[in-house]
Write a structure and sequence with these properties.
With about 475 residues, the chain is mainly alpha-helical. It has helices at about 20-35, 55-65, 90-100, 110-125, 195-205, 215-230, 260-265, 270-280, 295-300, 315-325, 330-345, 355-360, 370-375, 390-395, 400-410, 420-430, 435-450, 455-465, 465-475; strands at about 5-10, 40, 105-110, 150-155, 160-165, 170-175, 185, 210-215, 235-240, 245, 310. Strand 1, helix 1 and strand 2 (about 40) form a beta-alpha-beta unit.
Length: about 475
């Protein structure tokens, strides 16, 4: 029986948790959970200028908000610790020294300026950017030039050959040795480059599957050569399709604000909805649209990971969010709704019983928690501004006696409930021999300022006895 998989997510903390990174984390998390494996978080913090503690925290906060929890990683030390690359530099040096001793790597003393000049000359001569390959200047160098530091390069085999792997999402992929050059493994300051550091880390952490975006397909070939040079069995690989912005260009931090996971939290998107949306950007399960985390874990496999890019669709995200506003227990939605109301100046705390009533009243109309808070705002203020057109139509001399009766009957109620308040409106309309709308709509305009609200009993219950009566009195006092 195969052992449980060990799967990792290895972000570079250079800002916030990117949507593409969140999807990579999610796919790996789902695979690990479905197969009873271990999900590992490793932080590739070798970009010393941009990998700040704040950036690391942003990554962790984003994953925690989405509920993509790790089994091993920062704060959850396991047998493969430490989980930050900058704390593993001795490990990278150890294997680099081994490869040099075995003649499989070498020190390169060429300066960045020299490399850049050669690259520019090749690209000018060929007219093809990105075609430069390191010439192997230092490959057989016996004596180091004085006063120069060195990087460490991997020594590609000199004979003809090719490297192939069977991608779990894309199928077999092959590249000839001649397409690869002697790539840099380790910088002069001991910081590993991506292709080197991730191989050392994945092997020493016993990673069995590497899932990442399709932009990393070409990185797989030099990594496989390194596994071969070290005599290690490589993990399996799966590469996921790109995510494109609404403009059909790759979703990027520079061009697309929606790339920031936590922006959606601030806009009132639920984590369940964003996970649901993100998982569908590259994976499907038949025609299912609304998919829970439990279903994702039960259904996820690489056979249904697509090969074409997913396109960001804000309307679809909002539609999914509305579905989750209706599907989740009101208490779950209410638990974070208070933050949006507080931001609008409402003095309310999580756990206030009015929050669940707000959710029940507006979840059929609102697409986000931000919209829900906007709709609910007038129910937490003292007094209301009337829409003049609505007031002119519904707060008339004819409606005033009906409002007066509603006010009197409602004030006498022993319990201020939606059912009892609906009964008051029904009783007044029957006594006056008019349709309920002739009573309810003037009440609605009086207490909300406009003609649209939840059911009238629900509206009055949400406002509360004192505020409802105050607003009715204000409407009745109009000339």
């Amino acid at each position: 029986m195969a052992s449980a998989p060990r799967v990792r997510f290895a972000p570079s903390p250079t800002g916030y948790l990117h949507i593409g990174g969140a999807r990579t984390a999610l796919f790996n998390y789902l695979y690990a959970k479905r197969h009873g494996g271990v999900f590992i978080l490793r932080v590739e913090d070798t970009d010393q200028e941009r990998s700040t503690p704040e950036s690391v925290k942003a990554i962790l906060d984003g994953l925690m908000w989405l509920g993509i929890d790790w089994d091993e990683g920062p704060g959850k030390e396991g047998p493969a610790a430490p989980y930050f690359q900058t704390q593993r530099l001795d490990l990278y040096k150890k294997y680099a020294d081994q490869l040099i001793a075995e003649g499989k790597a070498y020190r390169c003393y060429c300066t960045r300026e020299e490399i850049d000049a050669r690259r520019a000359a090749v690209e000018k001569a060929t007219g093809k950017p990105g075609t430069y390959k390191y010439e192997g200047t230092c490959r057989e160098l016996k004596e180091p030039p004085p006063g120069r530091t060195s990087v460490i390069r991997f020594k590609m085999p000199s004979q003809e050959g090719e490297v192939t792997f069977d991608d779990k999402a894309l199928g077999p992929i092959t590249k000839a040795y001649s397409d690869l050059d002697d790539w840099v493994m380790l910088r002069a300051d001991g910081i590993p480059l991506y292709n080197y550091g991730c191989v050392i880390d994945d092997h020493t952490m016993d990673i069995t599957l590497v899932g990442r975006g399709q932009e990393h397909v070409n990185s797989t070939f030099p990594q496989l050569m390194l596994y071969q040079a070290l005599g290690w069995k490589p993990p399996e690989f799966a590469h996921f399709p790109l995510i494109l912005g609404p403009d059909r260009e790759k979703l990027s931090k520079r061009k697309h604000p929606e790339a920031d996971v936590m922006l959606h939290k601030r806009h009132g998107i639920l984590p369940e909805a964003l996970l649901n949306f993100v998982v569908r950007l590259g994976w499907s399960h038949g025609n299912d649209e609304v998919i829970s985390r439990e279903q994702m874990i039960e259904w996820f496999d690489f056979d249904h990971v697509g090969t074409t890019s997913g396109v960001w669709n804000p309307e679809k995200l909002q539609w999914l969010n509305q579905q989750w506003l209706k599907l989740l227990a009101p208490a779950v939605v209410a638990s974070t709704l208070a933050d949006f109301l507080v931001a609008k100046g409402v003095q309310i705390k999580p756990g206030d019983p009015r929050l669940e009533r707000v959710v029940l009243a507006f979840r059929e109309r609102a697409k986000t928690q931000q919209e829900m808070a906007d709709m609910a705002l007038k129910y937490f203020q003292h007094g209301v501004a009337l829409e003049e057109k609505a007031a002119a139509k519904h707060l008339t001399a004819e409606s005033k006696p009906l409002l007066t009766q509603v006010r009197e009957h409602a004030a006498a109620l022993p319990e201020w409930t939606a059912a009892a308040l609906d009964e008051v409106v029904k009783k007044v309309s029957e006594q006056a021999a008019v349709g309920m709308g002739k009573v309810a709509q003037p009440v609605r305009v009086a207490v909300t300022g406009g003609t649209v609200s939840p059911g009238i009993g629900e509206t009055l219950e949400l406002l509360g006895r004192e505020e409802s009566l105050h607003r009715l009195d204000a409407a009745l006092a109009r000339p």
